[in-house]
Amino acid sequence: SPVHHTRRYDAQSYDFIIVGGGTAGLALAARLTEDGKTTVLVLEAGGPPDQVAAYKAPGADLQVLGSPIDWAFTTLPQESLNGRQLVYNRGRCLGGSSAINGLTYGRGSSSLYNLWETLGNSGWGWDEVLPYFKRSTTFFPPREEVAQQEFDASLYDQGPVALSYSPYVNGTPGSIAFVESLSAIQVPTVQELNGGNNVGAKQEPLTIDDKYRRSSSYDSYYMLAKDRPNLRVLPFSPVQQIILQEDAGNLTAIGVVYIDHPGGRTLNVTATKEVIMSAGSIQTPQLLMLSGIGPTETLNEAGIKVYLANENVGQNLQDHTYFSINIEVDPSISHSSLYRDFSKLQQAEQEYWEPKGPLRAPVGLSYGFEKVPADVLISLNATTLASERPNQAHIEYYYETIYYPNIPSPYYLRHEYNTSYVSLTAGLVAPLSKGSVSVRSNSLSDPPDIDLQYYTHPEDQAVAVHAFKNLRRVLAEFAAACNCTVGANHGEVNPGPDKVRTDEQIMEYIRETAVTVWHASGTCAMLPREKGGVVDKRLRVYGVEGLRIVDASVFPVIPDQHKQGPVYMVAEKAADMIKDDWRL
Ligand SMILES: Cc1cc2nc3c(=O)[nH]c(=O)nc-3n(C[C@H](O)[C@H](O)[C@H](O)COP(=O)(O)OP(=O)(O)OC[C@H]3O[C@@H](n4cnc5c(N)ncnc54)[C@H](O)[C@@H]3O)c2cc1C
């Protein structure tokens, strides 16, 4: 594996230690070591992602879940989901969640970032973050076998992360029909979603290179930087805690404790400038708490010495959640057969890598973002709405080429082995419900408590019911446009056209079947401390010198888009701020 070719830099201390070699961690490490001088150590709990070969194949994205490169956490039982516990997947490898995600690339509404700015974060408005979105990405125009798709070349630069369109997407009549059918709910087809207007429908770009293979932060930023003598990346090296030094009332992060590989020894390593947490929205707050930074009561109960009380650590968990209706379709437009028998991948890999083969595309294909009419936002709490709702999308509709989610539920009665399905899906992308992440003991070996609290805010329920009704409108249009559904009632097999008609029934169906989009954000929010903050606008942890957070946990409000784009943007901007602060 390329990891083992990394040149050894055997210093006992480094300028910067980055905890977590995931999406943000590797991007930041690559930028900080560009000068050839600044020394950076990245400690990553997992190994290289290519220990699971299928991670490179976009169409195998769901197969990677539950493999050794996935933490596969389980949430606490969720009352708002009728007591269900969800599997909460997270990348456990170099590349982190960018190595196991659904590859969709988006940025979100300009108004969302302008809201970040108004919440106390000058420098984070759309005009200031757009250059960092550009700097992280290169767009490969679709090749000739791909139907022409519009994109605005000025929105992408020569950045490490590769973006393109999948040929399978463009060759799939179902995907095209889906985008067109969203006009039935007044979501118009648009040419570009990444320029600040995030309302409309199109086939979104994917993080794939010009050979249609996954471009994670491992494949992009890490591959650029791996041979630099001033970068050291240690896989299989979980960090246990941050070492904090107390001196005359001041607290400084001076290093970390980690378990080395393959020795299994507990070692200390020190940072002369900063420790930077990039362990993601679930594990960054977990590690802060294990190190004594967090809510006093939680730390006391877990038997952890309180170095710095901050009730906001682990709070403000915002996430996207979705639900689907399942449609029986002609096998030619579905991934069902591939997912039924994944051994086909080994038997006929060549066939699946054909230009139009299904392994070239993830199961989530095209997307539409709706800003819901004002009367749906029932204004239960005018103050919350005024401050938290920018002019942005509320619902994302997407099209999946399988029966999904495939979870035990009284509603999911029919999933026949030899039948082909697609799913029409709606997700909430501007949720008001908030959950939390916490620790249950003082040990890293106990997984964190993840409490999602989906749909607990009444307005999220109203938006969800509206979205479900729209899915059926879209289905009618879709069935007419693609001429691919099988059987009566536009092919709807779940929940079934005669069931789930009233608002109460719809909400119950959602409670039984909704799952996560894995977009956990905001658990160490960039906000003024008295407004729920853990880091300031330069991502420095309040009350501790030499400690920054650079990952999705700093988002003060979750973007109305998929999350890897905003994470790369944060990492790029953080790199500039850190270089600036240290005059590097
Ligand atoms: C299944 C799935 C599908 C998704 N689909 C999409 C999609 O289609 N499009 C999109 O834009 N976004 C998607 N996302 C979300 C997106 O990938 C994540 O939000 C983003 O990658 C998070 O980046 P991060 O840097 O905050 O954390 P991560 O990339 O998760 O990185 C955290 C890293 O820290 C490491 N770590 C954790 N604890 C420790 C420790 N104690 N010591 C050392 N290392 C540690 C982890 O192993 C990991 O490598 C998806 C996520 C998942 C899980």
Quick structural overview:
The chain is 25% helix and 18% strand. It has 584 residues and is of the alpha/beta class. The strands form six sheets. Strands 1, 2, 8, 9, 10, 11 and 22 form a seven-stranded mixed sheet that branches. Strands 7, 14, 15, 16, 17, 20 and 21 form a seven-stranded antiparallel sheet that branches. It has a two-stranded antiparallel ribbon with strand order 3-4.
What does this structure look like?
The protein has 584 residues and is α/β, with parallel strands linked by helices. 25% of the residues lie in helices and 18% in strands. It has 15 helices and 22 strands. The protein has helices spanning 23-32, 110-118, 126-135, 167-171, 173-181, 218-225, 280-290, 296-302, 336-340, 343-347, 349-352, 382-388, 458-482, 503-513, 564-581; strands at 13-19, 40-43, 73-74, 87-88, 137-139, 161-163, 200-203, 231-234, 239-247, 250-259, 266-277, 293-294, 308-309, 321-328, 364-370, 395-400, 421-428, 436-438, 449-451, 492-494, 515-516, 547-549. Strands 1, 2, 8, 9, 10, 11 and 22 form a 7-stranded mixed sheet that branches. Strands 7, 14, 15, 16, 17, 20 and 21 form a 7-stranded antiparallel sheet that branches. The protein has a two-stranded antiparallel sheet with strand order 3-4. Strand 9 (239-247) and strand 10 form a beta hairpin. Helix 5 (173-181) crosses helix 13 (458-482) and helix 13 packs across helix 14 (503-513). The two termini are 31 Å apart. The model is unreliable at 1-9 (pLDDT under 50). The structure holds flavin-adenine dinucleotide. The site of flavin-adenine dinucleotide (FAD) has 43 residues, from helix 1, helix 7 and helix 15.
